Amino acid sequence: MRTYSTATIAGTVLAVSLFTMTAFGRDHDLNGTWTLEPTKSDFAGQPVVQTGTVTISDHDGTIVVTRNFVYEGATETFFYKDSMGTQNHATIHSGKELKTKTKWDHDVLKVTTTENGAVTLESYALNPDGTMVVNVERPDHKSLTLFFQRK
């Protein structure tokens, strides 16, 4: 029978604890407030957003995404603001016809919204240059690609 020293056992426990905290307890790199870069973004023929911010907060498994956008149509300016928050993999139901699910898929934050049977998927990811890219896929629309700089 082989015996292990207290130092070996303590070292193993410490290594496993550090791995667990790193793998499962870390905050995501997308946390913070991001400012839209409209000139780099592809709006796929949709009204161009003039200004906008996205704030992502993921702490202790609760994910909150807050979006503020201003875009100009031909004759008026629209202000769009919403916020949603869920436990990771949880679903929010807002009324009978709207539900939102927010979850991490590795390092990509995915927000799926179903409204009146139509599903919109937003994917938030960090680019190697430190910018955030958001891809928005909606039924019967071309995909949008939005770029954001950390504020």
Layout of SSEs?
Blueprint (H helix, E strand, L loop, with lengths): L5 H19 L7 E5 L12 E11 L2 E11 L4 E11 L3 E3 L4 E8 L2 E8 L2 E9 L5 E6 L6 E7 L1
Antiparallel strand pairs: 1-2, 1-10, 2-3, 3-4, 5-6, 6-7, 7-8, 8-9, 9-10
Task: Tell me briefly what this model is.
This protein has 151 residues and is mostly beta strands.
Task: Please describe what this structure looks like.
With 151 residues, the protein is mainly beta. The chain has a single domain, classed as Calycin beta-barrel core domain (Lipocalin). It has one helix spanning 6-24; strands at residues 32-36, 49-59, 62-72, 77-87, 91-93, 98-105, 108-115, 118-126, 132-137, 144-150. The longest helix is centred in the first third of the chain and has 19 residues, at 6-24. Residues 4-26 and 76-82 have low confidence and may be disordered.
CATH superfamily: Calycin beta-barrel core domain
Structural class: mainly beta
Portion of residues within helices: 10-25%
Please give the CATH architecture. Beta Barrel
Going across the major beta sheet, what is the strand order?
A: 4-3-2-1-10-9-8-7-6-5
* Count of alpha/pi helices: 1
- CATH fold title: Lipocalin
Average predicted confidence as pLDDT: 74
Low-confidence stretches: 4-26, 76-82
**How widely separated are the two ends?**
59 Å
For the biggest sheet, the summary is:
10 strands, antiparallel
Provide the domain count.
1
- What gyration radius follows from the Cα positions, in whole Å? 20 Å
